[in-house]
Amino acid sequence: MVETGHKYYDNVAKQIAWAHWFTFFNIVAISLISLRYIAYSGLSDSSLGITYQFISLIGHFSFLAAVVFGILLFPLAFVISNNLAYRLTSILIATIGIAFLIVDTQIYRLYGFHLNPLIWQFLQKPEQVEAIYSINLHYISIPIIFGLEVLFSFYLWKKVRNIQSKHIGKPIALFLLSAFALTHLIFMWADATQYRPITFQKSLYPLSYPMTARTFLTKQGWLDKDKLQKNKLGENGTTQQQLNYPLETLTFSSKNESADFNILFINIESLRADMLNPQNMPNLQKLSQQGTNFKKHFSGADNNKQGVYSLFYSLPNSYWDTVTDNHISPVFIDKVVQDQRHIGLFSSIGMLHPQFLQSSFSQLKNIPNVYYSKTENNNQVIQQWNKWLTAQKNNKPWFSYIYLEQKNHYLFTKKHKKPISEQSKDLALYQSQVFTIDNQIQSLVDTLKKQKQYDKTIILITGANGLSFNNQNSSDASLINNSHVPMVILWPNKTPLEIERMTSHADIIPTFMKGVFSIDNDNTTYSSGLDLFSNNNRQYVLSGDQNSYIIYEADKITQFSRNGDINMIDWQGNRVNSTKENSEFDITLLIDVLSTLRRFNQN
Question: Where are the alpha helices (DSSP H) in 34-140?
Fold first, then answer.
């Protein structure tokens, strides 16, 4: 029975006053525990960035504590009249919250993720992964947390009147509110100006969603997007989150028979694997019969810029931000430069793009013998490359990269549905452009033959990314087609072959580092790929983008996001229901994927 009168309200007032200070005590506790996030991610390399790390820590966790107070502790004070029961309930809530926080800090240390439903699944099955034991050991701290909460709750209950009389509550509340407001205001400024020492902290803390206003500010004319992009391209690195890449110093043996071969990469934007057929790409189809045709090949991403990145780095997209922000050069390009090969780079979309200037070719600005094309379309790319090749000396091996654009790929990325007649028209336009690109590839090969360099040039032809013809770009069809690309390698003196096992863009650089440069190091020290010619069967291929990852297996495709959302389909696009056996296998696979996503992190 609920009491009435002054005694009831006095009791509620005391409980709420106690809850205020109990919440403040827990804000201090969780802030101290959350210093682990800063320890694991590393301090920012600017004083403002470091200041923001601590302001946002206080502001964010004080806000979360305030939400718990407002949603739970405050209303419970009106419902639970028994003081002991109220305090015990509050202690249990605080203990559970802090226990989850401690587990989350360990998850973040191991995998760079925060606790989510997917991660929670394998926490229930520690026998599958040794690393989980170290996480579950944190549950031992629960009785300790509970004891400390009881101790401080008892002390605060006795002293709440005295603490109230000191009138320090308002200054503390104002300080915490200011920290919360500054957290969002500073991040809005950092996001608008692309100040990376702060923006890289966006996902540092769990349940953190700092405010952004770049789109609004741009619409108002207060921000110049082109100027911001140029400023970003001019940066030499802005965070301490450097990669431990490669994991060890690379060494190379004496030259092998392929060491003096030229290397030509031909990368085609938005090229589906099923376009490699006698009707759409007859020339490439004939060339594939003269070289090695990888029938089940996947780009490392479902978009073009990270597809290019995966080709040159052989790393998952989890490292994309660190690479582009710090202009980290791929080990393959470093070796090409070290060998003093002439370099020719050709692209109709230019080189002022993150997939080029900020990553793959970031260290070539001051290197002699590097040619950058200036073209507006694929035809000009071919013409300029022909001239560049003619100028190369036959006794000096070279490296060339050609990026061929698909101008009409956007027709299939719009999310609204179109009439069948319009879809057919778009498909015909795409196929026509693919056919044109096929002729351009043949023109490149003809030029090599004319210059008598074909027999000493390794030619790699592949898509930067795939493409789904389904107008709903987020559909299951996009999981099947957006990363599946053709790949043909014409390697002198190698027997023509068709390879049916799954391969990845991540396998390209290890293949060239071993086959051309005779690297001594294991491929795991500088990539997440395998040698394409080693006959090693992959259990899975990893692709996707920065927000979600796609795991391609022989019988199914699994997509999971950093938030824990999971989608599983078969190769016909049908949803796969997780059985007990599948669930256990998926958890083991997930741990391997998470380890891959973190293996080259400095921390």
Answer: 35-41, 47-68, 74-79, 83-111, 117-123, 130-136
Residues 502-554: tens digit of each pLDDT = 999 999 999 999 999 999 999 999 999 999 998 888 889 999 887 788 999 98
Judged by DSSP in three states, 354 sits in coil
Q: Judge if pTM exceeds 0.85.
A: no
What are the phi and psi torsion angles at 316 (to 5°)?
Answer: -65, 165
Which CA distances in Å does 54 have to 35, 41, 84, 166, 198?
8, 13, 35, 27, 11
Sequence-distant (≥ 6) Cβ neighbours of residue 503 within 8 angstroms: 294, 296, 297, 298, 487, 532, 538, 541
- 247: exposed, middle or buried (Cβ count in 10 Å: 0-12, 13-18, 19+): middle
Q: List Cβ neighbours of 484 (8 Å cut-off, separation of 6 or more).
A: 272, 273, 296, 297, 298, 299, 466
Q: Sheet holding 262-268: strands in order across?
A: 370-372, 342-347, 398-404, 262-268, 457-463, 484-490, 292-298, 497-504
Residue 138 in tokens: 């944190």
Within 10 Å of residue 251's Cβ, how many Cβ atoms?
9
Higher pLDDT, residue 44 or 133: 44
Quote the tokens at residue 14.
Answer: 């005391």
Residue with tokens 């992009």: 229
Give me the sign of the Cα torsion angle 583, 589, 592, 597.
negative
Name residues whose C-beta falls within 8 Å of residue 452's C-beta, 6 or more positions apart in sequence.
394
| Spatial CB neighbours of 61, under 8 Å, sequence gap ≥ 6 | 27, 30, 31, 34, 205
Check residue 226 and give its pLDDT. 52
**Residue 582 identity (one-letter amino acid):** N
Q: What is the arrangement of strands in the sheet containing 566-569, beginning at the earlier edge strand?
A: 541-544, 548-552, 557-561, 566-569
Q: Which residues of 427-443 are buried (b: 16+ CB within 10 A; e: fewer)?
A: eeebeebbbebbebbbb
Helix (H) / strand (E) containing 480: helix 476-481
d(CA 264, CA 458): 6
Which residues are registered as beta bridge partners of 371?
A: 344
Residue type, 502: M
8 A C-beta contact, residue 188 and residue 211: yes
Q: Which residues contact 197 (CB under 8 A, 6 or more apart)?
A: 44, 45, 46, 48, 49, 52, 190, 238, 239
What's the length of the chain? 603
In 314-407, which residue ranges form alpha helices assigned H by DSSP? 320-326, 331-338, 378-390
Cα–Cα distance measured from residue 148 to residue 568, given in angstroms and rounded to the nearest whole number: 44
Q: How far apart, in whole angstroms, are the C-alpha atoms of residue 10 and residue 16?
A: 10
Note every long-range contact of 49-52, with CB atoms under 8 Å and residues 24 or more positions apart, other chains counting: 49/197, 49/198, 49/201, 49/239, 52/183, 52/186, 52/187, 52/190, 52/197, 52/198, 52/201
